[in-house]
Amino acid sequence: MAASNKIIISCAVTGSVHTPSMSPYLPLTPRQIIEESVAAAEAGAAVLHLHARDPETGAPTAKADVFKEFLPSIKQNCEAVINITTGGSLGMTMDERLEAAHWAQPELCSLNMGSMNFGLFPAAEKIPEFKHSWEKPFLERTKDNIMSNTFGQIERVIRELGDGYGTRFEFECYDIGHLHTLRWFVDQGMLKPPFFIQGIFGILGGLAAKPDHVVYMRRLAQDLFGDNHLFSALGAGRHQTAILTLCALLGGNVRVGLEDSLYLGRGALAKSNAEQVLKIRRILEELGFEIATPQEARAILSLKGGDRVGF
Fold first, then answer.
1. d(C-alpha 156, C-alpha 224), whole Å
2. How many CA atoms does the CB half-sphere of 48 hold within 13 Å?
3. Of 15, 30, 57, 239, which one has the fewest beta carbons inside 10 Å?
4. Which stretches of the chain are DSSP H helices?
5. Residues in contact with 126: Cβ distance below 8 Å, sequence separation at least 6, in sequence order
6. pTM of the model
7. 130-162 burial string, b = 16+ CB within 10 Å, else e?
8. CA neighbor of 254 nearest in space, from 19, 40, 22, 35
């Protein structure tokens, strides 16, 4: 497929990394997730990457019953592609991680392409007081936990969601080896193009948010997949804007959102996901890029359409 001249902005609205004590603006309840998602779409996000939170405590949850409280309303109020996590949160079983996706049968799901250390524990030392008792242990245990994505687990996601429902994937690649793992699954005939590759930079345990790393991953993706892929990037924390701008200049797409960074600029918390979308959109448009609409993103990514999901 020929490369598109439109940039897809994805927005990861809440995630399972940050905790309520880190920002008062992190959306936690179904109503907050609905409002933040719709506003982000109106600001220019063509894709919404969604996790769920326990409405009472803000802890990550993968229960379909919680997703049911916000996915239908988001779909009714905007045209954005809804992209559901299959990573869930550290410590969840595969059955837990896939529960919501089996119910929703979405157009797009995230798919982590390798097991790795995922270190959130340094954050526990920076927060003087936690709102909820679960937060500090949740962060601290990442010192000894592994984010598990074995070949067997990856194949299960492909078989059950891809083959089962026609769902396509945002392949989350935290390191160079993850691209080679993706290539292996392609060579086995389990995946068909176009491949939507999300390079992730700045997570402790994965590739650092360095310009050279972005350039090399972008080039390697081109070498491995040629014109059969779409590359995107996210920069964790303070690295968000610089990494995304570089990725766009290299011909890639971008992902923002409070899952990836709680900040709008140096020392300034983002008050909404839409603020981050508007910021990167302004930068991209001033650089001469065009922003893809949801329908253009569906065509670029060869998605099945919002009328063929389970919600």
1. 23
2. 31
3. 57
4. 30-43, 64-67, 71-77, 94-104, 135-140, 151-157, 164-165, 176-187, 211-225, 240-249, 273-286, 294-301
5. none
6. 0.96
7. beeebbbebbbebeebebbbeeebbeebbebbb
8. 40
Task: Please spell the DSSP secondary structure of 184-202, one letter per residue.
Answer: HHHHTT---SPEEEEEEES
pLDDT in tens, 131-151: 999 999 999 999 999 999 999
Q: Taking 80 as the threshold, does the pLDDT of residue 123 lie above it?
A: yes
Domains of the chain in start order, with CATH, are 6-308 (3.20.20.70)
Asked if residue 138 lies in contact with residue 18, where contact means CB atoms within 8 angstroms, the answer is: no
Q: Mind listing the pLDDT tens digit for each residue in 213-254?
A: 999 999 999 999 999 999 999 999 999 999 999 999 999 999
Contact 262, 275 (CB under 8 A): no
C-alpha to C-alpha distance for 311 and 140, rounded to whole angstroms: 36
How far apart CA 182 and CA 197 sit, in angstroms, is 9
Compute the Cα dihedral for 67, 75, 247, 260 and give only its sign.
Answer: negative
Both tokens of 94, joined, read 């595969």
CA-CA distances (angstroms) from residue 266 to 138, 192, 221, 233? 26, 41, 31, 20
Any idea which residue has 């598109």 for tokens?
A: 4
Token look-up 């500090």 returns 136
